[in-house]
Specification:
CATH superfamily of the largest domain: UbiA prenyltransferase
Mean pLDDT: 86
Shape: globular
Largest sheet: none
CATH class of the largest domain: Mainly Alpha
Distance between the termini: 51 Å
Number of domains: 2
CATH topology of the largest domain: Tetracycline Repressor, domain 2
Length: about 350
């Protein structure tokens, strides 16, 4: 059966050849180590095939999805510290992180191999460390495993409609069209980054909430709004790829607006939509949570001034490491507040506020 994934061109695009040169991937770091295993920038490469497979899955990106499941479980108001709930939560985290986020990152690397040849030539595919046939096999295995776990969780929860399976299927489809032509959402800076932000904030939250309670339109809309802050985080990830995006004609926001303006757009999105969540918390009577969220936003603004707005290309990793913990703690504060409020009342008050 013919694979749905296109085979690579025998020649790299001229833009890639011009920028990489004849030396190619052989000039890049071969050190490997923790950065390589986590899939981080400048992580080098490894000769171990399982380390290479793990690098393709970028474990460093699993953390926000795992955290999103925790937030969803908290927002459900129905998670209990007992063995069954704990095991179900862990399975949902594995589905969201290692399996479906791993699928997303692997398929993204597959379709970004030309860009990575410019920006990160040491990565497994452009360096030739793993055959494309094995990459495609990994994509299929991770996708099927993630969908299988989702369906099993629906059975555990007793869902008459397989909510988790449908969420997993929808999220996987978004991941595909984000990376793959002809749509390739990442070619559009606004649409692509929002798809990424929603996938990392809204989708795992929905999964956690649907697993232990009921996913409502109110919380769905709130998390989609929260995902606009995730759009700002996604812009930060674009700074490291700006040379390759520009060479291959991808319209990322740093390419369209320039690095300085894009850094301000990123900071504004991150801050404004968290402040919007403060307003929502006040509207539903969760004033203490609103104060906590404000206190968690202030350090993020400080780190934006220190790292993001000064040199986002050089300091993107430092900014993410220093500011993101406060963002994700704010998500949990918001989720706990929602979980301890009357969701019907929340819906009415949010509708009035809008």
């Amino acid at each position: 059966m013919k694979s749905p994934l296109p085979e690579p061109s025998p020649k790299q695009p001229q833009a890639v050849n011009d920028m990489v040169g004849d030396a190619g991937p052989s000039t890049v770091s071969k050190t490997g180590g923790a950065r390589q295993l986590l899939g981080m920038k400048d992580g080098g490469s490894s000769a171990n095939i399982w380390a290479i497979r793990l690098q393709l899955m970028k474990p460093v990106t699993w953390i926000p999805l795992i955290w999103g499941v925790i937030c969803g479980a908290a927002a459900s108001g129905n998670y209990h510290w007992r063995l069954g709930d704990l095991l179900a939560a862990l399975a949902c985290m594995v589905m969201s992180g290692p399996l479906l986020a791993g699928y997303t990152q692997t398929i993204n690397d597959y379709y970004d191999r030309d860009i990575d040849a410019i920006n990160e030539p040491y990565r497994p595919i452009p360096s030739g460390a793993i055959p494309l046939a094995q990459v495609k096999l990994q994509i299929v295995v991770l996708l099927l495993a993630g969908l299988g776990v989702a369906y099993g969780l629906d059975l555990w929860a007793g869902h008459s409609t397989p909510v988790l399976f449908l969420l997993a299927l929808g999220g996987s489809f978004v991941s595909y069209i984000y990376s793959a032509p002809p749509l390739k959402l990442k070619q559009n800076g606004w649409l692509g980054n929002y798809a990424l932000g929603a996938s990392y904030i809204a989708l795992p939250w929905w999964a956690g909430q649907a697993l232990f309670g009921q996913l409502t339109w109110t919380t769905a809309l709130l998390t989609l709004a929260y995902s606009l802050a995730g759009l700002g985080i996604a812009i930060v990830n674009d700074f490291k790829s700006v040379e390759g995006d520009r060479a291959l004609g991808l319209q990322s926001l740093p390419v369209v607006f320039g690095i300085e303006r894009a850094s301000w757009i990123s900071a504004a999105m991150i801050d404004l939509f968290q402040v919007a969540m403060v307003a929502v918390l006040i509207a539903i009577g969760q004033n203490f949570a609103a104060v906590l969220l404000v206190l968690l936003i202030l350090p993020q603004i400080t780190f934006q001034d220190i790292w993001l707005l000064r040199d986002p290309v050089s300091f993107d990793v430092k900014y993410q490491a220093s500011a993101q913990p406060f963002l994700v703690l704010g998500m949990l504060v918001t989720a706990l507040a929602i979980g301890h409020s009357d969701l019907i009342r929340v819906g009415g008050q949010v509708a009035q506020a809008l």
